[in-house]
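Second opinion, please. Pick holes in both lines of this record:
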Amino acid sequence: MTNPAGPQLMGIDILWVATLLSAVACMAVMIAIYSAVTVRDPMVKRVKALNERREQLKAGITATTSKKRAKLIRKTETTDKMRQLLSNLQVLQDDQVKAVQQRLAQAGIRRKELAVTVIFCRMMLPIIIGGGAGIYMYVLDGVPDWGAFKKFSAFSAAAILSYKAADIYLTNLVTKRTLAIRKGLPDALDLLVICAEAGLTVDAAFNRVAKELGRGYPELGDEFALTAIELGFLTERRAAFENLAYRVNLDSIRGVVTTMIQTEKYGTPLASALRVLSAEFRNERMMRAEEKAARLPAIMTVPLILFILPTLFIVILGPAACSISDAFSKQQ
């Protein structure tokens, strides 16, 4: 004896769909609980790496063990080969290398030799990907149904995207890092004011703020910790602040750096200047939040029409449709 079929809507068993959605929801809840329980401190690895770098700089070496030294030599040889090839082709310019190095620093990548790799990828990826697409479409005739214009459009898109792939990836890293630093800057300035009023030196204040904000804002903690390290061993303290502005693509950081340099030069009160900057940045953050809130109704219109309203119609009209379908099936 077969079991009677459950209520159906448009030929689909509603009980089966509800069971599947319940299983997906349970899986999502389990993943969320696991992610919340297994949270790791993002600053542990960063602080360890910065401390190792500080000790290496103080000792005047770039690798502490023979294994690291050999690995560094291999990377340097590969980079030198790329640099030599680009120099022979006369496509490597000093201004271009410096610009890419700054972008790498703004993305949180400390290795300057990767600038040559980025420029090398700009030259080689269009040849590899674009040339491969051209061979596949024109030589091997991989898409015989496509016309000449469609093939040329696909080939051009592959070549252009492969040329811009490294820059797009780097720009994405810089944007994410800049936004993360911007969110935590007002809180960092408040802590700097407290440290300055407590009598701490500038490098000790930066180090303390890096430790306190490292868990919530690891990118900002990383930059402040590196600035504190540079303040400890650089001959000119001005260079440490300028390096901070060099590594962060943010006008607010440039304002903080200018304030710190003027304070070091003229001896003006640091706490009062930082308090004014903190209030200004906090008001700016509030204005950005209000702007996003004002755009929310317009942004939610399309998801409301496409996803929320159909779901409401199914929830409201679904039981009635099932009842009507069962009534017609019994009459027949």
User: Anything to note?
Assistant: The mean pLDDT is 77.
